[in-house]
């Protein structure tokens, strides 16, 4: 698909995800927020725009089996913590180890596109509910 140009609707979708600092929204949440600025936008347009923004490298998708795809506008290399109770993603701000170089050297025939590391546990909010 790809973004040919950033129309008003496309820019609104991108800005909503970019301004969701520390939150990794799904399409339904983005749709609700974008409708505040662009009331006539459809959910289908939001889905297609998120897909195109991902293809064009503006967003990074975060997916887990059985859950809606979340989107991350922070394209700087970083890892995530994921709460196994509420499913929320949290950014880890720390130096990244170089995981790809060793794998590329050992498997040169495999075209590597990236690596995804996710730490799992229980967030503070969910701990307090159980506590």
Put the structure in a nutshell:
This protein has 131 residues and is an alpha+beta fold.
Describe this structure in words.
This protein is an alpha+beta fold and 131 residues long. It folds into two domains: 8-72, Winged helix-like DNA-binding domain superfamily/Winged helix DNA-binding domain (Arc Repressor Mutant, subunit A, Orthogonal Bundle), CATH 1.10.10; 79-130, Dna Ligase, domain 1 (2-Layer Sandwich). Helices cover 37% and strands 15% of the residues. It is built from five helices and five strands. The chain has helices at residues 8-18, 27-37, 43-55, 100-106, 124-130; strands at residues 60-62, 70-72, 79-83, 89-92, 118-121. Strands 4-3-5 form a three-stranded mixed beta sheet, with no helix packed on it. The chain has a two-stranded antiparallel sheet with strand order 1-2. A hairpin with a 7-residue loop joins strand 1 and strand 2. Helix 1 crosses helix 2, helix 1 (8-18) packs across helix 3 and helix 2 packs across helix 3. The chain is globular, with a radius of gyration of 17 Å. The protein starts with 7 loop residues before the first helix and ends with a helix. The mean pLDDT is 88.
């Amino acid at each position: 698909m790809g973004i040919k140009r950033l129309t008003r609707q496309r820019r609104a979708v991108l800005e909503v995800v970019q301004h969701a600092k520390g939150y990794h929204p799904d399409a339904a949440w983005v749709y609700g927020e974008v409708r505040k600025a662009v009331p006539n936008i459809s959910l289908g347009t939001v889905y297609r725009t998120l897909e195109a923004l991902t293809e064009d490298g503006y967003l990074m998708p975060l997916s887990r089996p059985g859950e809606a795809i979340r989107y991350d506008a922070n394209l700087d290399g970083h890892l995530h913590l994921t709460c196994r109770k509420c499913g929320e993603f949290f950014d880890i701000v720390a130096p990244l180890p170089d995981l790809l170089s060793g794998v590329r050297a050992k498997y040169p025939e495999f075209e590597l596109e990236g690596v995804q590391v996710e730490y799992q546990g229980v967030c503070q909010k969910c701990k307090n509910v159980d506590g």
